[in-house]
Design brief:
By secondary structure, the protein is of the alpha+beta class. Helix content is about 40%, strand content about 15%. The protein has one domain. A 4-stranded antiparallel beta sheet has the order 1-2-3-4. A hairpin with an 8-residue loop joins strand 3 (about 105-110) and strand 4 (about 120).
Length: about 140
Amino acid sequence: MKSRFKTGLIAVVLLLGLSAFSCAPANDEDYADLAVHLGWVAGAVQGFVEFVEPEAGLSGGEILKQALVMNPDLMKGLQGYYVTSRIKGAYSSVLLCDADQMVLLAEDAGCSATRLDGRFWDQAPLPCEFQLNLIEVCAASK
């Protein structure tokens, strides 16, 4: 009886571990797909900043909601992750972290449409916080 319980418990733990592991991208190609989706969202947020002139003090989630009101499907490729945004003057960026908001995966500034500005998934884990200096990043992209 105890042996059967132990076997069942081990199986449950293994299944939970494997299912949690399978939620994370397995390789650089998976991360590249996330980066593309993040870039689309970052571009939408930057357009919102430039053309709508949002009110000051919006939370990152509220910025995303308002910026994507016309195309909320842009977030579909980022489901299962924590995504937030920020506005600094005329610039914006979007942050991508693991679902638990513990590990930073990427950050993309909306001003640079051709590249991912902050690729952090292959570095030592960083906290889920904005890292980019938007003035420097955006000045370099012009």
